[in-house]
Amino acid sequence: MLDVLVIAPHPDDAEFAMGGAILKMKAEGLRVGVLDLTDGEPTPFGSRETRRRETEAATEVLGLDWRSNLELPNRSLEATLEARGKLAGILRTTRANCIFCPYWEDTHPDHTAATQLIEAARFWAKLTKTDLPGEPFHPQRMIYYFCTHIRKIPEPSFVVDVSAFWEKKLAAVRCYASQLANSPGGSMTGLEEQIESRGRMWGWTAGTRYGEPFSVREVLRIADFRTIL
Ligand SMILES: [Zn+2]
Predict the structure, then answer these.
(1) Distance from the CA of 223 to the center of ligand 1, in angstroms?
(2) Domain 4-228 has CATH 3.10.310.10
(3) What is the pLDDT of residues 181-228, one digit of tens each?
């Protein structure tokens, strides 16, 4: 049983987009899991084995309560009925009330397919009279993180102050050396610089040092005004 489930098209998307928020939620005592939809391979400098080890190391840094891989096909991820059933089963058994998924606009087809798949699986997860595992369950919140390949500035609904967790987030990011490398054995790092400058920019918009942006499609309820002061 989890409080929060972060669903990522590829191993590393969760860390790159919201490693700081994951660490913050863990520090607040929440039970947080990450489900990667594919193994992310092939990539220029990665292999299945390398990616598996990198993911294990990052999982350790984040201190996750749960991590799994749905083993859907990388590069050709599609929101099929079969995949929807597999994912709905995970939602019903992990029972996380809050789901994080990729922002709906992207140039990477796996990312937009993941968004469609997750939204459809969320609906299926609450159905009765199915042969899905577990009991019917409807996650209350869907929050979208930005791990986009589209070159435009998004308009987030809110920014999370992750200043206190930035160094540890970078430690989780650096676990994915095969994805940061410009060349085998090369020192990186355009991607790391991007993550750093985006973190600073979103921190600036929120009046803090480092921030991570998020969007919602459904209205958010404020239960306690002290949380937004
Ligand atoms: Zn990705």
Answers:
(1) 33
(2) no
(3) 765 444 446 888 889 999 999 999 999 999 999 999 999 988 999 987
Residue 136 C-beta-side C-alpha neighbours within 13 Å: 7
Beta sheet of 4-8, edge-to-edge order: 66-69, 32-36, 4-8, 98-102, 141-145, 211-215, 158-161
Q: Cα(175) to centroid of ligand 1, in Å?
A: 15
pTM for the model stands at 0.95
Q: Which tens digits make up the pLDDT trace of 48-89?
A: 999 999 999 999 999 999 999 999 999 999 999 999 999 999
Domain ranges of the chain: 4-228
- CA 130–ligand 1 middle distance (angstroms): 31
**Structure-token pair, residue 129:** 């009279």
